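[READ THE FOLD]
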Amino acid sequence: MTTPPLASATDALRPLLDTVLDALREGTQARGGPMPGGGPEAVAGRLRAAVGDVLPEEGDPEALRHVVRALTEGSADPADPLCAAHLHCPPLAVAAAADLAASVLNPSLDSWDQAPAASALEQLVTRKLADWIYDPHSCGQSCRWGGTGGRSGTPPARASETPPTPATPDCLVTTGGTESNQLALLLARETLGPAVRLICGANAHHSLPRSAWLLGLPDPVIVPAPAGTLDPAALDAALTELPGPHLVAATAGTTDAGLIDPLPEIAAVCETHGARLHIDAAYGGGLLFSDRHRPKLTGLSAAGTVTLDLHKLGWQPVAAGLLAVKTPQDLDALQHHADYLNADDDTEAGLPDLLGRSLRTSRRPDVLKIAVTLKTLGRTGLGALVDQVCDRASEFADLVDAHPRFELHDRPTISTVLFRPAHATDDDIATTRRHLLTTGRAVLGRARMDGRLWLKATLLNPHTRPDDLAALLKLVEGTTPR
């Protein structure tokens, strides 16, 4: 048989792109809404029928069209205004196009000779983002001490002492918040020792206690979060009672409600006790782009490590995670030697050593789409998108609050709105959500707050219009038992 053309053969790739775009359009039309109808078995059945044998004896030259169309028809569409369940954003076209270039070029960031330009681009972007995240003026407050060194109980330098020259912060590209949080715990363990204990709120992301288990750390201490955010007084009590060293994990943008822990107060408690601070800003970190919403992240620069996901409030295709590190020496723990990738004589001769940039070996250049997006939109352009989705959330909260048949949990902090039909039971709400899912009419999340079940709308689509929000509320109203 004829050898298939490689992706680098642009003349061969161009018609395939037309095929993909046609299949995406056909699949979207066939789906007809934000979600395929029928539920799991029906969706899987349609996919099996459309795809057929995935490894036939003879190949099918129309496979690209058939499989992409089938996948599109059976996908949840984050670009649909009624798809609002999760932190699942519609990616920007320019980011998706850049991601195609990354796939065609296929550099792997485990050695310089596989990714000469991509490794240089990653360094440019990550250094810029690290400086931006750790610029205390970017969120309205300077921080005297970052809580990054020393075991718990070690006081910070006295005000009369000359502070050391701060090291230049750094940033790693990750697959998302889970990997970033795991790396943050790993760096804390290697800096403070294997007895370091994680202390986090009951509102923290599940990846934090799971990472503590995975890394063999002591059982984490879960501090109450009665208002949905970490209670600084309860944190102070826990740090006072428990022997150190401690790693405190705060959250800027909870998964359930988009709430932000009181970061300045938590940073002050950590400073008092000499505890290391990590802030999981996977969701809320994107507020840094916005002049209007950036002050909500006051205190962020106090953290030794910060998680941020640009496949949330950054409109990137998955994956586009980051871990910012205030003290770059902490990254020494990730250094690893494999002679075929970073031989000593190559490194001494000036070839960059990339193995210390990740726990992964083969690693695609996710930085390319990030770089193209940052350069194309700039901070102002991205900030405008952040403002738009936050505005849509406020407008949706207004609709809910004004509707006599609905109850609003609280005003949105970022772009998440929790609401529920008035007088409905938790079972009613769960049933309503599943019905909307399985009929393909709307995609809403769920969250348990204050002992009750709430519907969750996470608004990440800047193109959502007020009439889309009204239609969503009407769908829920018409579906919920009375």
